[in-house]
Structure formats: C-alpha cells, structure tokens
Inverse folding.
C-alpha cells in the first residue's frame, strides 16, 4: 500500500505518524529537514524538540476537590486516543505543580526513540520545498522553511497568515539567590514547585522602566501586532501599562513572601526546566530583547542579580494559515484543490503543545481513512478536540486569531450551570463519553 507522507518531525508530525503507523497499521514516511537545515530556534536534530516553554499546560488535579481545566480535558482525550506525545511527556515529567512540564532532552529523546524504532515508520532527513504528492500531512509548525512556506502562499493566496512567537530565557538553579527568592506554589498548590522572586514597589518600578526602554533584537514597528496574545513578549506586555505585568505573569496573589508574611508588589516565577532541577525558566518572560539587554535587565530582578543564563530568549517566526478560509472540517487544503493534503499542528491555527498534538492525531487518523477509502469522521464538537476543530472552521476569517484550548469554545451544556467548577466537570464528563464513543466508532 502507498505510504502516507508526513512533513515535519515536531510534536504534531510525530503524533500524526504514530497514529497512522501504530493505530491504523499503515506505512508512513516522516520527513524532517534537521539537521541538514535548521531554524533560528532549534538546537538539536532530535524529533519533537521543545523550543519554547517546557510546560505542556494543566492536568486534572486528582485531589479531593478536582481542579478541572480545558487543558486537562484535552489531555484526557489524547490519552484515550493513545497519544505518543502525551505518553512521552508523562515519562519525562518534572515538578511543576498542577502543570505537566517536561525535561526537554529526555522528552525529545523518547519521542525520537519511539519513532525510529517503529517498523512502519520511515524517517527521512531532507528539506521539502514544494507541496507533496498526496496523501500527505504538512506539520511543519511555526518555523516552516521559507521554500515550503512560499509554496503554501502560492497555493492559498492572500489568506495566508504569518506572525511571531517569543521564547523565554533559562537560568541555572545554583545561580539564583535563595536569600531573596523562595520556593512555593501559588495558593499553596503543587508544593514548592516554583522559585519566586518577590519585588517591592520601588524594585518593580526600576525594573519596569529599564524593561520598556531596553534595546530589542527586532525593530519596534516590525514586531508590533505580529505576535499571538498567549505568547506575547514581556516587554510588549509592559508597554500596555505600568501595572499590566502585575496583573499578568508577575501577579503576586497567593504568593506571600515568607520573610514578611505579606504579598509583595510583584513576583517573578521560575519553573523547573529539566529532571535534575538544575535549570529554571522565567515564566511568562518570552522576549525579543537583545541578549546583552536581557542579562542587564533581568538581573535587576531580586534573586537573579548573579543569574547564569544558559539560554536567552529569542523572537522567531511563527507561521499559520487562516484556517476558516482555507481548511475544510478535516484539515484538508480543499480551498487549493488539494483534498489529499492535510495540515496539522500550529500551522492550522491552534496554539500550544497539546493543541498541536491533537491536530496531529486528527490529521493522522483522517489521512489513514482517506487512504483506505473510508468516510472521513465527524469529530464530535462536544469533545475538546472537536471544539478546537469547530473553532478553526467557524471563526471569522477577517479576524482570525490562533486559539488555545479553553472552556469558552466548548458548546454550552444542555442545562446551564452557574458554578464554574461544576460547569467544567460537566464539560469533562460529556467530552469523555463523546470521545470514547467516537473512538469506538472508528474501529
């Protein structure tokens, strides 16, 4: 039988290849250009390299009072679907409170091992410069190579959209001054998973003023309006107002300083980035500042005066299509007359690791069914995955923005529930039932 080609060895591409080979039992050709060609953000030749935050978002808290989030519901559905990416993330987990964060190298190594050892997956290292013959899946992510990006532009015309993402810096644990910083989880949840750097009002004011006047790696006008709201550079957040950071990534609520017993004016949080606990990333500090400026300005944060930066933040190109204008309900490029080519991952217009993984799972199953000559399935909108697909096809093309998983895109429950926790539980129960029924219908 003809092999399905998957272009891109990131999270969504690997997930798509895994679903085709492991779930559907079909041969698949996975094409990854690294290390023959690389991107400004990647540093290894490993598959599924994590280049932004190492957090994969929230999970369902199994405590006596479950904390249910949309991200947690999505992960439960991926688990039901036999997700490779989720299983490798769990196997390489590092402490992060209620979030699923991974040791980057271990995670990517596990995915690479699983893919390369699968008898039905052929890994090919080469760059693809044009639209492939179908059936195929394009899962090249936010850093699609210029030649392939241009091929997509030619095929899709003016509906093509490009914007930018920013990456947060990482420091060594031993270089953090714990005489000023303290370990804690917000609201007492998740133990002491985060390192917190408290600021008084004067310290915050100095930091704020230096941040908004710091030199940037990209021209100011060039980056304005080009990034996604959910991954906005810290300096762009600061520009929205003196207190905007204090109500965002530097929010001090639920983090009393143990030295005073009171909440600080602002708090910078750092999250563990590797299994050994030797590296921590600055939460919410995606940035496009020049590297020297990052060192200078971020060292003003109490506790980070002598911080050793092992990776500075970078601004990188993030490419996606205007999904409601160019994709059909199964993620195919039917608007370009290519019903045999699917898109997967961030390029579809979703934002986030697990969201991208989910689109890989969808594209993999859909492409396999197309090859077998079976009807393409209707993914239930009452699931997290189905609600993401519904958003991609129903959003206003004139104002389309990439979307994270959130409870707001689920269809309303039949019986309106005012209490947010109970409403989330209702979404979860309905989604789990629908996902199980849907997966059973595919067999």
């Amino acid at each position: 039988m003809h092999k399905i080609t998957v272009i891109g060895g990131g999270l969504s591409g690997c997930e798509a290849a895994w679903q085709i080979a492991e779930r559907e039992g079909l041969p698949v050709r996975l094409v990854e250009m690294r290390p023959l060609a690389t991107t400004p953000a990647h540093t290894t030749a490993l598959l599924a390299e994590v280049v932004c935050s190492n957090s994969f978002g929230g999970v369902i808290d199994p405590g006596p009072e479950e904390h249910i989030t949309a991200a947690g519901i999505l992960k439960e559905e991926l688990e039901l679907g036999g997700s490779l990416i989720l299983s490798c993330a769990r196997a390489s987990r590092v402490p992060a409170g209620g979030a699923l964060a991974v040791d980057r190298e271990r995670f990517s190594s596990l995915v690479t091992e699983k893919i390369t050892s699968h008898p039905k997956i052929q890994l090919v290292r080469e760059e693809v410069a044009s639209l492939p013959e179908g059936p195929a899946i394009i899962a090249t992510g936010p850093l699609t190579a210029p030649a392939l990006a241009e091929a997509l532009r030619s095929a899709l015309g003016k509906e093509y959209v490009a914007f930018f993402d920013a990456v947060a810096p990482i420091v060594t644990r031993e270089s953090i001054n714990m005489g000023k910083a303290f370990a804690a989880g917000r609201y007492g949840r998740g133990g002491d998973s985060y390192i917190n750097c408290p600021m008084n009002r004067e310290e915050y004011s100095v930091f704020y003023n230096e941040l908004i006047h710091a030199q940037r790696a990209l021209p100011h006008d060039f980056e304005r309006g080009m990034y996604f709201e959910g991954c906005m550079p810290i300096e762009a957040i600061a520009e929205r107002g003196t207190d905007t950071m204090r109500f965002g990534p530097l929010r001090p609520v639920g983090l009393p300083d143990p030295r005073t017993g009171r909440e600080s004016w602002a708090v910078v949080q750092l999250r563990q980035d590797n299994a050994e606990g030797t590296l921590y990333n600055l939460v919410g500090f995606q940035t496009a500042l020049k590297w020297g400026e990052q060192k200078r300005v971020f060292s003003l944060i109490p506790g980070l005066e002598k911080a050793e930066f092992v990776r500075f933040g970078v601004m990188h190109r993030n490419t996606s299509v205007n999904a409601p204008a160019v994709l059909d309900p199964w993620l195919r490029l039917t608007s370009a007359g290519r019903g045999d080519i699917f898109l997967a991952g961030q390029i579809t217009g979703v934002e986030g690791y697990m969201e991208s993984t989910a689109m890989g799972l969808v594209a993999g199953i859909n492409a396999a069914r197309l090859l077998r000559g079976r009807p393409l399935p209707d993914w239930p909108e009452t699931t997290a995955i189905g609600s993401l697909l519904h958003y991609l096809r129903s959003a206003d093309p004139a104002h389309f923005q990439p979307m994270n998983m959130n409870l707001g895109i689920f269809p309303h429950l039949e019986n309106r529930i005012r209490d947010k926790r109970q409403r989330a539980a209702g979404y979860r129960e309905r989604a789990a039932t629908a996902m199980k029924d849907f997966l059973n219908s595919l067999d």
